[in-house]
Amino acid sequence: MEALFLLVPLSVIMVFVALWVFFSASDGGQFDDLVGPGMRVLQDDDSGAPAAPAGPVDAAQQNGDATH
Question: What ranges does the record list as Low complexity composition bias (predicted)?
């Protein structure tokens, strides 16, 4: 019975903290657009990607020699 004197107020405090976290996230705009970021992942947007990956440069190309 003595444990209830500790557990009931502790659980009430935890509920109020969880509600405060939820409502502060809601007021901050956390839940405004739930679909947009998931759809952005699926879009094929290669405009910011480099055209070809940079490979290793051999010594002839680095020195400007066009022997091959």
Answer: 48-62
21 or 38: whose pLDDT is higher? 21
Q: How far is CA 6 from the centre of its chain?
A: 38
Which residue do the tokens 């405004």 mark? 32
Torsion of CA 32, 38, 44, 49, to 10 degrees: 80
- E runs forming strands in the chain: none
- Return the closest-CA partner of residue 17 out of 47, 50, 60, 9: 9
- Count CB atoms within 10 A of the CB of residue 2: 6
